[in-house]
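User: I'm putting together notes for a lab meeting next week and I want to include a structural view of one of the chains we've been expressing. I don't have a solved structure, so I'd like a prediction I can at least talk through. The sequence is below, exactly as it appears in our construct file.
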Amino acid sequence: MPIATVNPANGETLKTYEAMGAEEIERRLQLAEATFRTYRTTGFGERARLMNRAADLLEEDQRDIGRVMTTEMGKPVRQARAEAAKCAKAMRWYAGHAEELLADEDPAHSDVKDSGAARVRVRYRPMGPVLAVMPWNFPLWQVIRFAAPALMAGNVGLLKHASNVPQTALYLEDLFHRAGFTEGCFQTLLVGAGAVEEILRDERVKAATLTGSEPAGRAVASVAGDMVKKTVLELGGSDPYVVMPSADLDRAAQIAVTARVQNNGQSCIAAKRFIVHTDVYDAFAERFTAGMKALKVGDPLEEETDVGPLSSEQGRKDLEELVDDAKRGGAAVLCGGVVPDRPGWYYPPTVLAGITREMRIHREEAFGPVATLYRAGDVDEAVLIANDTPFGLSSNVWTRDDAEVDRFARDLEAGAVYINGMTASHPAFPFGGVKRSGYGRELSGHGIREFCNITTVWHGA
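Assistant: Thanks for the context. Below is the predicted structure for the 461-residue chain, given as structure tokens.
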């Protein structure tokens, strides 16, 4: 795949870039290693000052970088600006909380005495250069939620971004440099996917994090496992959105539309499978389908646009094949389902009903504005359908019954359960999944400790 900005709204190639050669990659690896030796000794106050400055600059650049993201991958420009603002918020959160999250811990006194020590401390020390392999769908946020905690912990970052968002990737390196971080603290590697293995095998790279597809996660995890290096993986999702009879149907249907089509439906944590109790199925389906039909599909640079194009022609083709397979299997198309005759890689908001286990869309992630409806007879069946997926990233449940809340919170196989609301990431809450959605956690204290050497310091009497 070429490293290029191709506008998904019209297919026009705007900028192309040459991949970095072996000599430049080596220079940057040397710089990362050398920078880490000194940066790791900086205090939290200095790191926080730099991180807050980067957040200030990002807010100043919000409109410009928002347009760049929209032009590169097609998200509505309002959502692009909101993404930039969210990144600045996360940067400030880690600037303000990293020191307490990574403070030395003292085990219980009785346990220390039992070990024969006068004192024992647990310290969180940085590991070194961390390779981040990041996707195009949230081209700022996916990177910042790695970079902010990693840099605040004293690590340095090497970014291999998706090849279709090179301008955003270069912007991120420039952002941290303008903020005052030493040049080697955060570097963008303009390389193709084929270069990742050799970089990850380099002894100077101590760990890796990847957000992306399941095949990409398998590839990185395999190499890292061979090299015995720590990894965090956030992969696909096919999140359930369960609606029970006690739910506020109007609100549940309204939020369901946003939950499905956020980021043009290209989000791992977007609700994709809508599992509705039979008592309210028809009423919900009517409201939800009407909401999907009402969305404005158009130029993502226009403020009133709700849904823009998919990021690539191949992405649209993959989505179309899933929908066509479901139609051949007997699925009912309540709205959408036909590629529009217009320039760009658009796909209409689509609702499918009558899904069976034999259809590909039941077990594969639909990465675009396509929702599937399921009917459940009771709580047991709702849980069964929700868990009948290889993924387990997040989940959404709409109910006002406390017993049902406890049941879903206990039994849903997911990294998060959102009650009466849609899944969203926040710097204070751990983010990640189970099953084929990956392992490890980003954000919160759990995320900043993922790339730390948790060190026991034992003092003799």
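A couple of points you could mention at the meeting. The mean pLDDT is 97. The two ends are 61 Å apart (CA to CA).

User: Perfect, that's what I needed.
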